[in-house]
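Design request, tokens follow.
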């Protein structure tokens, strides 16, 4: 089979059902299955940013399956640096041109045909583990009442959620959906030094700074979205800083649960930071509180200072790949992530530009038209290409509109979430 042609065919139609149907026609092809896993598994990295110049084999060359297997030496860091680049070049030059293009897709960790992890798992169940992420619960008094004290109150950061994954002496950065964040080595030294030879995962938030301090969310995350797409410049990457709040052993992270209590994980993190004094990585602002009243007082004080909110964290909370009840989010305004399902043209001074976006929750229960929060650049540049994207929306309350549908009161556009693929379900929208 010409696998590169297959991926080109998959890329020719945006429909998910089309892709699933075509892959199902070849689901028994072991080489195809191996290629898809090698390309999409977020826990397999090859540590090469740029494909070296090469001349493919003018003849049939080696079998593609064998070529894919040679990449294990890169993934396991048996060959690194210039030796790794030479290793990859040798593999590419041993393959014919079509098969070499497939290896390029694998190295890029993107099949470039719209096939996602969820699509692959639909064809080959459990082929690839979902990228693990622990999410906080939204404020509910019944959840707050179950928090054990003393507890931590930590500032809710207003940047981009990320993991720094340190393994085999190297570090990679992932968004909450497992996509690579390319920071061009800017933070590598800090995280590798802090890990001190231990495979582990740091959890935190990326922010962008300039001479005036931390940039506002839209501007900063606009730069960080370039890191998601691999288009960030060296200068922009040099402006990125990390705030961290958790430390998880690598194997526990992959398996989706760490039974070590948060107090111990945070203490270990504090020791690392205090010992190695990183220059571009800092601990989240954190306070110990003895009761709910102290937590509420801190929350109100931070809101008055212009902060977004707080996270209340149970000392005894474990890390788990789910929305946890041991960490509760307090916010002055509500926020959710919705899927864009359509756009509306602007009128009046916005004629010929974007007027509003039509959004809904994952299950389609909450539906809302969002026409506020866009600047002139957004209205001039955003169009139907954003349909299907996830967008962060700020609002004041969940309501029932005149059509009897669940909706949001005073919705305001914040940003397109390049780091997220799935919208919030209605049960997670307060």
């Amino acid at each position: 089979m010409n696998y590169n042609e297959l991926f080109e065919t998959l890329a020719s139609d945006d429909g998910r059902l089309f892709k699933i149907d075509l892959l199902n026609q070849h689901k028994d092809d072991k080489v195809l299955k191996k290629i898809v896993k090698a390309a999409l598994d977020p826990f397999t990295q090859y540590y090469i940013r740029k494909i070296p110049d090469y001349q493919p084999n003018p003849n049939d060359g080696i079998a593609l399956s064998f070529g894919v297997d040679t990449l294990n030496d890169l993934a396991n860091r048996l060959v690194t640096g210039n030796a790794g680049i030479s290793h990859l070049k040798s593999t590419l030059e041993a393959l014919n041109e079509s098969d070499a293009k497939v290896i390029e897709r694998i190295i890029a960790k993107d099949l470039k045909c719209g096939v996602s992890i969820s699509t692959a798992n639909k064809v080959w169940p459990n082929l690839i583990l979902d990228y693990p992420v622990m999410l906080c619960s939204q404020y509910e008094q019944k959840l707050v009442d179950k928090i054990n004290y003393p507890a931590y109150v930590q500032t809710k950061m207003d940047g981009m959620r990320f993991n720094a994954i340190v393994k085999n002496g190297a570090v990679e950065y992932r968004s909450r959906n497992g996509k690579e964040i390319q920071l061009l080595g800017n933070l590598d030294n800090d995280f590798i030094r802090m890990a001190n030879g231990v495979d582990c995962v740091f959890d935190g938030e990326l922010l962008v700074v300039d001479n005036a301090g931390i940039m506002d969310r839209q501007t900063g995350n606009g730069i960080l979205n370039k890191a998601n797409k691999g288009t960030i410049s060296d200068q922009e990457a040099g402006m990125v800083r990390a705030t961290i709040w958790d430390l998880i052993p690598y194997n526990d992270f992959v398996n989706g649960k760490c039974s070590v209590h948060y107090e111990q994980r945070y203490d270990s993190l504090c020791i690392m930071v205090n010992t190695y004094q990183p220059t571009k990585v800092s601990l989240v602002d954190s306070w110990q509180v003895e009761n709910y009243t102290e937590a509420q007082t801190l929350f109100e004080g931070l809101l008055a200072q212009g902060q977004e909110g707080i996270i209340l964290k149970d000392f005894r909370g474990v890390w788990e790949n789910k929305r946890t009840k041991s960490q509760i989010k307090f916010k002055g305004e509500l926020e959710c992530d919705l899927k864009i399902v359509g756009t509306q043209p602007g009128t009046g001074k916005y004629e010929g530009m974007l007027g509003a976006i039509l959004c809904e929750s994952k299950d389609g229960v909450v539906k809302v038209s969002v026409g506020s929060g866009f600047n002139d650049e957004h209205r001039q540049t955003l169009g139907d290409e954003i349909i299907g994207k996830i967008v962060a929306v700020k609002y004041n309350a969940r309501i029932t509109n005149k059509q009897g549908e669940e909706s949001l009161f005073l919705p305001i556009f914040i940003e397109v979430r390049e780091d997220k693929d799935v919208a919030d379900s209605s049960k997670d929208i307060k």
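Comment from the thread starter after seeing the answer: thanks! The first helix runs from residue 3 to 11.
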